[in-house]
Amino acid sequence: MFSGSLVALVTPMAGGTIDEKAFQAVVDWQISEGTNGLVPCGTTGESATMTDAEHARAADICIEVAAGRVPVIVGAGSSSTAVCIHHAKHAEKSGADAVMVVVPPYNKPSQEGLFRHFKAIHDAIGLPILMYNVPGRTVTDLSVDTVARLARLERIIGIKDATGDLERPIKTRLVTEPDFCQLSGEDATAIPFNAAGGVGCISVSANVVPRLCADMQRAWANGDLATAQNLQERLLALHSAMFCEASPGPAKYGLSLLGRCGTELRLPLCEISERAQMQVRDAMAGLGLLVDRAAE
Questions:
Q1: What is the distance between the alpha carbons of residues 167 and 262, in angstroms, rounded to a whole number?
Q2: Is residue 254 within 8 Å of 207, Cβ to Cβ?
Q3: Could you state, in order of their start, the residue ranges of all structural domains in the chain?
Q4: What one-character-per-residue DSSP string does 74-110 give?
Q5: Is residue 141 within a helix (H) or strand (E), and if so which, with residue range?
Q6: Rounded CA gap, 291 and 209, in Å?
Q7: Burial, 155: exposed, middle or buried (Cβ in 10 Å; 0-12, 13-18, 19+)?
């Protein structure tokens, strides 16, 4: 249902609130650069520190600006199943194409608890659901067996896999239907993930280099493996830079260098260090992204 290069959108902020004008412009720019799908209100969008009203507004802005040009998959994650359902119902009412639900962080549910969590959200809404497994942040790992159980539910249509384990998409493919959508959540292994059964990536780096990420995924889909691999290698330094400190700090700094939004983050996140700034600048310069800005 979803494939190619999807972006885990940052949420531009200014003066302690959402910078709506910048957010609208970023969404429109992403689409014009070839991004295949938008994912607002995820962990990269700082959803954990948004109020309910801000979460709803960010989702609404993205849906309104996208205007059906590309799919919008709204993040609806929380440590609370009830909060997830609340966010998911708003996304459905606002016209989202799907919701993405991360494994609940901190409270370490069992596999049975995870099954019941995702099933409860499934039963509460009529939208497709992407699960999001990122044990490096949530501690709990959504097992392949639990994924297989959940994939039998009508509207659970895929998973964003940020385990970094390239055996995982193969194992998942063996226990799910052929149309079960597997998207990488790790930029650095996006092409190997596709080779193991994936159909695209929900990318942090695409915040800064939407065109190159889209071109890479398009090359893979068209069977141009040499181009896809070349782009994967060219982008590796940027992928590393995007996580040199807590995300989305590096991505927002990169966007600020492009004049797209400010660097403001919400505590407990703060601006990245000078050393991290240098790493981001060097990676972007290596891709030729700062030449025009320097000329200005």
A1: 38
A2: yes
A3: 4-231
A4: EE---SSHHHHHHHHHHHHHHT-SEEEEEPPPSS---
A5: none
A6: 14
A7: middle
Per CATH, which fold does 4-231 belong to?
TIM Barrel (3.20.20)
What's the CA gap between 150 and 28, in Å, rounded? 34
| Residue closest to 248 by CA, chosen among 232, 271, 226, 215 | 271
User: Does the pTM exceed 0.85?
Assistant: yes
What tokens does 86 get? Answer: 């609340």
Query: If DSSP codes are grouped into helix, strand and coil, which group holds residue 183?
Result: strand
Rounded alpha-carbon distances, angstroms, from residue 198 to 34, 186, 201, 212 = 19, 12, 8, 18
The answer to whether the bond into 169 is cis (omega within 30° of 0) is no
Q: Both tokens of residue 224?
A: 């141009």
Handedness of CA 210, 259, 22, 103 (dihedral sign): positive
Determine the 3-state secondary structure of 184 from DSSP. Answer: strand
Run means of pLDDT, 10 residues per run, the chain, 296 residues: 96 97 98 98 95 97 98 97 98 98 96 98 98 95 98 98 96 96 97 97 98 98 97 97 97 98 96 97 95 50
Q: Specify whether the backbone of 201 is left (phi greater than 0), alpha (psi in -120 to 50) or beta.
A: beta
Write out the catalytic residue numbers: 132, 160
